[in-house]
């Protein structure tokens, strides 16, 4: 995935540029952290990567599909309960009804929200709403997962579960791009870091070597036991 001379501004000619002259290539199978001050354009950059927004200038090419996106602000005033909403979203993404409902239930259970399957969305706590926001991005396993403050509001168990999802996504060859106000979030897994400042993008690092000489990042260890010679 590449951004070529990308710029974004809201409004007509003469309005200020939020981002300008962004040239970057998104690495595969990597965790990429985006940093910057409040209002620097981080969320705008994430929306461009996710395809939620379009550049005012330049091009975004070779976008991996499917894309999962967790916005900084998730709309909660929806005429659904979590199960109905997630099932509806899965159907939109091409699943048959039974598979859509099963997948929705699985993600609600995985994030500890199975007890609220039919609670109206407007009545959910912030934490449970955030679990639904994360789950909707994962209904179809994404090749690009974009997380804008996705851990905010989650309880410790759900935060750990999201960490596991990040590791699973990268292990499967996907890329995870995230913004989070906690500097230590996924610190041991980051393969590349981008900083947004003054409307421009700066590549700060490309990660460090792992203990086996390979790139740093999430690792999945598989232990197999069985009779000798099996």
Keyword list:
230 residues, alpha/beta, three-stranded antiparallel beta sheet, Rossmann fold, globular
Describe this structure in a few short sentences.
This protein is α/β, with parallel strands linked by helices and 230 residues long. The protein is 27% helix and 24% strand. The protein has 2 domains: 1-66 and 141-208, P-loop containing nucleotide triphosphate hydrolases (Rossmann fold, 3-Layer(aba) Sandwich), CATH 3.40.50; 75-139.
Structure description:
InterPro entries: ABC_transporter-like_ATP-bd (IPR003439), ABC_Transporter_VariousFunc (IPR051782), P-loop_NTPase (IPR027417). One of its GO terms (molecular function) is ATP binding. Pfam families: ABC_tran. This protein has 230 residues and is α/β, with parallel strands linked by helices. Helix content is 27%, strand content 24%. It is globular and about 45 Å long. A hairpin with a 7-residue loop joins strand 1 (2-9) and strand 2 (17-25).
CATH class categorisation of the largest domain = Alpha Beta
- Major sheet summary line: 6 strands, mixed
What is the overall number of helices? 5
Average pLDDT, rounded to a whole number, is 89
Low-confidence segments, given as residue ranges, are: 208-230
Shape by Cα distribution? globular
The total strand number stands at 9
- Under the CATH scheme, the architecture of the largest domain is 3-Layer(aba) Sandwich
Strand order of the largest sheet: 5-6-7-3-8-9
CATH homologous group name of the largest domain:
P-loop containing nucleotide triphosphate hydrolases
Q: What proportion strand?
A: 15-25%
How many domains?
2
CATH fold topology of the largest domain: Rossmann fold
Approximate helicity band: 25-40%
SSE order, one letter for each helix or strand = EEEHEEHHHEHEEE
Query: Any idea what the radius of gyration is?
Result: 19 Å
């Amino acid at each position: 995935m590449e951004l070529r001379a990308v710029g974004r501004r809201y409004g007509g000619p003469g309005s200020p540029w939020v981002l300008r002259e962004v040239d970057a290539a998104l690495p595969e199978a990597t965790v990429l952290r985006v940093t910057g001050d409040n209002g620097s354009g981080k969320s705008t950059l994430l929306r461009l990567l996710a395809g939620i927004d379009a550049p005012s200038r330049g091009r975004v090419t070779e976008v991996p599909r499917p894309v999962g996106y967790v916005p900084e602000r998730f709309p909660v005033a929806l005429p659904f309960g979590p199960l109905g909403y997630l099932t509806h979203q899965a159907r939109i993404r091409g699943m048959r009804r039974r598979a859509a409902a099963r997948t929705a239930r699985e993600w609600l259970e995985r994030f500890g929200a199975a007890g609220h399957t039919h609670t109206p969305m407007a009545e959910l706590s912030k934490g449970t709403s955030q679990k639904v926001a994360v789950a909707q991005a994962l209904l179809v396993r994404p090749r690009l997962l974009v997380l804008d403050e996705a851990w905010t509001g989650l309880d410790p168990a759900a935060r750990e579960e999201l960490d596991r999802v990040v590791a699973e996504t990268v292990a499967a060859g996907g890329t995870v791009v995230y913004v989070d106000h906690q500097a230590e979030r996924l610190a041991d897994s980051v393969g590349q870091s981008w900083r947004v400042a003054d409307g421009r993008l700066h590549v700060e690092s490309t990660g460090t070597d792992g203990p086996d000489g390979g790139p740093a990042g999430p690792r999945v260890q598989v232990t197999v036991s069985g009779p000798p010679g099996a």
